[in-house]
Amino acid sequence: MRGGPSILGIVLAGGEGKRLMPLTADRAKPAVPFGGMYRLVDFVLSNLVNGDVMRLCVLTQYKSHSLDRHITTTWRMSNLLGNYVTPVPAQQRLGPRWFLGSADAIFQSLNLIYDEQPDYVVVFGADHVYRMDPRQMVRQHIESGAGATVAGIRIPRTEASAFGVITTASDGMQVDRFLEKPTDPPGLPDNPEQVYASMGNYVFSTKVLIDALTKDADNDASVHDMGGSILPMLTEEGHVQVYDFDQNHVPGETERDHGYWRDVGTLDAYYDSHMDLISIHPVFNLYNHEWPLYTHTVQRPPAKFVAGGIASESMVAPGCIITGQVTQSVLSPGVIVEEGAVVQGSILHDNVRIGRGAVVRRAILDKNIVVPPGATVGVNPERDRELYHASANGIIALGKGQRVL
């Protein structure tokens, strides 16, 4: 933060994202396209940069080429001011092995912390869709004197079994336990019907983090995970407090999208979060210019609608040509929807082409897919389940360049 304590940001971007297959068949999860123009990693980087955390290391591992390329071509900071965003691959600095977990990833990259010598280290995940001002969380961390602070989002207690849950002492701030997907966790002191789900965002005092990582590295029984190993260890030592995400406010937010956070770890969550974007009053508003979301701007002409082509309740990126009908969908750059084609409730990535008279319904089509004239995707879910990936809720998903039968 300018004029304040020195902060190093570490973004954990090494996840495989197996539950997002086939979208992660050829790329890391944080590199998955989102919202027509963005990559998932753009959300955390935009939050950190908007919050004046200007020195950022993105730890990568699996299928990282497109992620590395996106970061190096898009996220260029001012060298004059010493700011940077840099991808950091698994370097095997401590021997011939990959990262064993998120904690081991940081432990193997401690040279970044030693070189920068920050007062505090912000460790955020790379695959969530949300807006957050990290300065407010850092401020609470400093004022509380905690060794570590974890961001928690309030969720109904009945939904706790899908999340890692944080329980607190009677003061509502001191963390006393981390519970992994509990079926019957205790409620919050001020609301018995709610619990804190961990958002995977942490602030550490530097010495506390280094000591914990070093101790964890010597523990052969550890899974070497930030949420599963480091935070429980520090909790037992009384070092951890929770930051209530509901207390975070960003400029330009609305009452409707305040506190929005989605873990898009499954095809259904990925699909549902896109549907949150396209209503008249969106649940998550991409058009908040006071807290912008940054990404690579494609060099394409404006979208074009010809010969009666229409799009309603949809987002259409530059370079698209619409001759057919599009409803409740999100189209990335270069999508072509030919005459008589119908696209309903779908997410189409770059350069998808929907042929004349084809129908695509409740589907996710990755880059460079061609739907032949008259073909259908999602119209006959039972048949499509045999041919393509299908989510638990029946969303049909095709990977990069996959042939439509």
Topology summary:
Elements lengths: L6 E7 L19 E2 L3 E2 L1 H10 L4 E6 L4 H10 L9 E5 L13 H6 L2 H7 L3 E6 L2 E3 L3 H11 L3 E9 L7 E5 L6 E6 L13 E12 H12 L8 H11 L3 E5 L16 E3 L3 H9 L28 E2 L4 E3 L2 E2 L4 E2 L2 E3 L2 E2 L4 E2 L4 E3 L2 E2 L4 E2 L4 E3 L1 E3 L4 E2 L4 E2 L3 H7 L1 E2 L5 E3 L7
Parallel strand pairs: 1-4, 1-6, 4-5, 8-12, 14-17, 15-18, 16-19, 17-20, 18-21, 19-22, 20-23, 21-24, 22-25, 23-26, 24-27, 25-29
Antiparallel strand pairs: 2-3, 6-11, 7-13, 8-11, 9-10, 9-11, 28-29
- Provide the CATH architecture of the largest domain: Alpha-Beta Complex
Which topology of the largest domain does CATH recognise?
A: Spore Coat Polysaccharide Biosynthesis Protein SpsA, Chain A
Distance between the termini: 53 Å
Q: Give me the number of helical elements.
A: 9
How would you characterize the largest beta sheet? 9 strands, mixed
Counting structural domains, the number is: 2
Average pLDDT score: 92
CATH superfamily assignment of the largest domain? Answer: Spore Coat Polysaccharide Biosynthesis Protein SpsA, Chain A
Kindly estimate the percentage of residues that lie in beta strands according to DSSP: 25-35%
The gross shape turns out to be globular
Spans of at least 5 consecutive residues whose pLDDT stays below 50 are none
Overall structural class, as computed from helix and strand content, comes to alpha/beta
Assign the CATH class of the largest domain. Answer: Alpha Beta
Radius of gyration: 22 Å
